Amino acid sequence: MPILGANVLNKGTTDPYLTPWTMVEKTTADGQTVDIGIIGVVTPGVRIWDRLLVEDTLEFQAPVEAVQRYIPEVEAAGADVVIVLAHTGLDRVDYEWTAGDLEEDVATSIANHTSGVDIIVGGHSHQLNNVEVYLENADGEEVLFTQPGYHARFLSQVDIPLQLDSEGNPEIVWSDTEKPTAVALNAVDYEVDDEILGVIQPWYDETLAWVAQVVAQATETMPAITSVYEDTAIVDFISHVQTQEVERALAGTEYTDLPVVSVAAPFSRTAVFNEGDVTVADMAALYIYDNTLMAVELTGKQLRDYLEYGARYYAQVEEDSEINWDEVTNAVYPDVPRGIPDYAYDILSGVNYHINISKDLGSRIENLTLPDGTPVEDDTRIVMVLNNYRQSGGSGYPHVVDAPVIYNEQKAIRDLMIDWAITNEVIDPADFYVKNWTVSSSTVIAEEPEEPEEPETPAPLKGNVFYLANSWSTTTHDVAFAYGKRGDQVFAGDWDGDGKDTLAIRRGNTFYLSNSLAGGAAAVQFNYGKATDEVLVGNWDGNGGDTLGLRRGNTYYLKNSVTGGNADEQFNYGRQMDEALTGDWNGDGTDTITVRRGSTFHVVNSPRGGNADTSYNYGRIGDRAYSGDFDGDGTDTIALVRKNVFHINNAHKGGPADTVIAYGRATDSIIIGDWDGDGIDTPGVNRIQ
């Protein structure tokens, strides 16, 4: 398996550092030998994010020019088929390639500006809809481009029709009826290969044991889901570790008394430290890259420039407007047509600042001060702590590439986090969490209006607040109360069989059930399953009381009582990537599992697995799906939610919704339940305030 890199050159020469191409010999079913020439090119982005490793030894040629250079050599060696294996995605729509251009995504340009390439196998851009794309080469002929699924979601199977030319040599058939094609081979459709598993088993087991190690205890649940628009404890934890390490290293130097500002990005919105055990896997889920820690010296003006650049992550909105964060984050620009990714948005600790996204780019940062309130002046000296990717120019932040490097001990940030956790044993936000930045559409951060104070008026609800409605004809709530903590997972069910749904919350693998809509202490508490299990609520045995089901992969574990212990039933249904929904689809009093693939729902009426009884399409792939008895006929159906608008279908069919109503806010978490026991499920939302 040669490592190919036609555009990786020894510095100052035209000599390739890696093997530019290789020839692979294949034999068809009828015994014909076919020579396949494969040219490999890498993304020139390596020169940026690994700058410190490569700048003294390597140079990176434009991938298009490297392919142009080696096609004649490959053809002269007798290649019947020419494939370019490219760490690159399709060009952005408005991109025009020019010689010497070191753009990262240039698969279209490789095809357009060369002759002789038959197939391009690409990657890098993390797109899942480019399995089979036909491009045009410099002679106006077709070139097949295929991009396998990132993180091994699927492989591309390329089928190449061949015929013999007049001299008996194989050549590709390109016609209106026959040409090379590509299809996805989805990983979830294949069983584990026992022979391969046997080879890797020792390393597999060792890895599982390593990531399962408990390194600390978290005093409360710390989710990352809102980190892209509000200061969160879990991202502050990264900066806390980074800051302590650099302060240790710089102690006693000329930088000891300089303010230290740490940079961290919200790499994963799904990362969470649940209350209780924190494992190596939790650390890896939060910090997903193998970056090392560095520090540079900046001025206050350079720091402001850095923040202004990062603030373009948000699309501009009207002043004082309400913000839908799903629409505002990951802003799109001509140079980033797919939107700025979360990993390119930097959050700073060690200074206070506000981002006003109603302002134009370059003038969004307001109230930039040091922690004690002192304004950051243009000439203020700052120690900035960041990762090697960012310092090397990754994501294009200004000043840091040329800034003086004052710390670079080549320590992996994830390892520093793990070591800190093992040493300190407890992760408590009270020790490090400081709300030092905000973002809104206003210069003055909008606050919720306060109700006029009256002697008997209760204080406004704060914390983890629920707003429940008892009908589908209102946009206001009937019941409001606080229960649980920020970051808890919330479920609705009739736990005591009284005909009324109430709430349950999960922290880690501990469940707290409430039998009333009044908050306060839980009525029942128990442990069940693992913190990573998906939870489903249903009346599995038809006895009138809801209980819990867990899913791991496509295996379901159902419990018929609200206690811990072993599951009462276990079965497989659907595929691991399916979305699962619970409901009494046929009105027999027993809940079963339905799965959704794309926009297709597969409804099963038998209690345990088997083939679907009904299948139909409804809504769009991006809709959020919820189940419930929305019309009180004793049969559960599906509702879809777009932003804060519910689209309710009262039968298992596609087509238009029977009821459309707005409730709550687009940023609320949604729960469905029969809160008043009238037999009709209605909306509820969960809001942190």
Description of the molecule:
β5, α4 and β6 form a beta-alpha-beta unit. The radius of gyration is 29 Å and the shape is globular. α6 (233-250) packs across α11. It is an alpha+beta fold. The protein folds into three domains: 8-189, Purple Acid Phosphatase, chain A, domain 2 (4-Layer Sandwich); 228-269 and 289-410, Alpha-Beta Complex (5'-nucleotidase,  domain 2), CATH 3.90.780.10; 464-688, Tachylectin-2, Chain A, CATH 2.115.10. A six-stranded mixed sheet has the order 2-3-5-6-8-7.
Most strands sheet:
6 strands, mixed
> What is the terminal separation in angstroms?
56 Å
How many domains, as an integer? 3
Number of helices: 11
Q: What's the CATH architecture of the largest domain?
A: 5 Propeller
**How many strand elements?**
45
Mean pLDDT: 91
Highest CATH level, the class of the largest domain: Mainly Beta
Task: Please report which band the strand proportion falls in: under 5%, 5-15%, 15-25%, 25-35%, 35-45% or over 45%.
Answer: 25-35%
Q: What's the arrangement of strands in the largest beta sheet?
A: 2-3-5-6-8-7
Shape: globular
pLDDT below 50 for ≥5 consecutive residues: which ranges?
A: 446-450
Structural class: alpha+beta
- Indicate the radius of gyration in whole angstroms: 29 Å
